[in-house]
Structure prediction request, 130 residues.
Amino acid sequence: MSPRKSTEQPTEGELEILQILWDAGSATVREVCEVINERRAMGYTTALKLMQIMFEKGMVIRDESNRTHRYAAAVSKAETRAGIVGNMIDKAFGGSAHDLVVSALGSARASDAELRRIQELIAEARKKLK
Prediction:
């Protein structure tokens, strides 16, 4: 069975592995397992099975040219984040980006620099509407 390009949202465990792969570029199952084990316990076979599932879902690619397979993310961090945020806006905020922003700014303290950057992004979005 050949892997397909993933349109699925990653689970929490899959997202943890994707983050490691984005940071490293590529990694073996053992390398991924070592990073995860710095935070919490995960057995090698658990990591292997999860990465095999991610391969079948099209979330990762696998280089099989060596005995030890290397995995890399098949989707970019930006694409993944956009999908997660879009899904959250639809499910938790009834499709309202406004409600998401109000909630985010109300529940987390934004720095002055972050608020300036948000204003710049709003200005850019307004230009695209014209």
